[in-house]
Amino acid sequence: MRFRSLLPVLFALMIVPGMHALAQKAAPAPAPVAAPVTAAPAPTPDGDAANNPNSRLPDRVVRLMRAIDPITLRIEGASIRLWGIKPASSAETPLELKALDLMDKLIQEQQVNCKIMGGTPLEMVGRCTTQSSQDLALELLDNGYVVVDRRQTYNSVFATAYEKSQEAARVNAKGVWNIVAEEDKKDENGVPKWLKPHMAFLIPMALIFGPFGGLLVVSLIMWYWLKRMAYVQEQEAEQSSRKEAMLINRERHVLISTLEGELTENKNKIEAFLVIYGDMLRTLKDQTEVPKYQQSGDIVQKHPAFGRAVFEANVGKLSLLDIKLAGQVSKLYSAMPKEQEYINLEPNVPLETAVKLVEKILKEAEVLLEPIGNLIIGLQVSQQQKKASAAASSSSAATA
């Protein structure tokens, strides 16, 4: 009886697995899942490269340049920012002017060699060296006038050299690091460090001896800060006057340099004018040849085409020069014709008249040649005297 009761159970265990296997064989296989297809990027047209400003950047720029701020050089039509550094400024010292003065001394109006690292055609970024292979950024870092821009130097081959230069300036307390060292001497709460160790003793003493002791301590602190404030105000006034003097000297230097360049160009034009019309006069006096103007006519300039742009743009700044020198500049430019004039030599003009006309033109041009040469020499002498005076005042200030 017990065996009969187990027969249905055994039968179910034998039949169910077989039916499950048949069902699996009959069921259709699931469709494979297709992998996502990533479209290949379209090729970039050649025009995109042409529109990219970085593709037009030169690899290197070697030109005459002038510093316009502690980290920027200016060339005609563009500027180059020194790579790897950024300005270090402080209200307590004219670091910007000192940095500009150092850059002028390093460049010495010679060509600068810049390896372009990036930027745009108008505002490039590069590593620049002077004619004597001095890296401008490293020189500024050595003197503490700038700090390392670690966003640019990070993971570059120049990072170690720039960091070493900055660390040397910090150890030697140069430039901005001297200010940082002075600030470190002050306590965060305004109490001098020499007084802080004694505060634990002074406070109980002030409480013990009453208001008189506390008033004495307050008076000492007030006296210290009043003295400190007077000293700071005196230093600020001195630095402000020094900064103003440096700005005036720099502006005078730029004015004299640009005027000298324009006068030199005008002198060259006069000399070329004299050569051309001197040859013409010799041709007119040569009786073996028929003058050119008698064949087809000719056009004669009454005077050279003088340049006046620098003078007219800086008329209001002539007061920066000595009174006598400023008067000479104004008088000379007043004698220069403003507009170009021409004379037509017709073929029927007598030869004697043509000769006299050319002789008159040459004589008028020669009259201006000597004053221009004297004025150029005067500007150069004035520039040298101002530099010597500035050097003497700087040395006397440093001695004081």
Beta-strand percentage? Answer: 5-15%
Distance between the termini: 129 Å
* Secondary-structure class: alpha+beta
Helices and strands, in N-to-C order? HHEEEEEHEEHEHHHHHHEHHEH
**Major sheet attributes:** 6 strands, mixed
Q: What integer is the average pLDDT?
A: 79
DSSP summary, beta strand count: 10
Summed up, the domain count is 3
Number of helices: 13
Q: What value does the Rg take, in angstroms? A: 41 Å
Low-pLDDT regions: 1-54
Q: Give the % helix.
A: 55-70%
Principal-axis shape: elongated
Please state how the strands of the largest beta sheet are arranged side by side.
1-6-7-4-3-2
Provide an overview of this structure.
- The protein has 400 residues and is an alpha+beta fold.
- The chain has three domains: 53-184, Beta Barrel (OB fold (Dihydrolipoamide Acetyltransferase, E2P)), CATH 2.40.50.90; 186-231; 253-399, no CATH class.
- The protein is 58% helix and 12% strand.
- It is built from 13 helices and ten strands.
- The strands form three sheets. Strands 1-6-7-4-3-2 form a six-stranded mixed beta sheet.
- The longest helix is centred in the middle third of the chain and has 75 residues, at 211-285.
- The radius of gyration is 41 Å and the shape is elongated.
- It starts with a helix and ends with a helix.
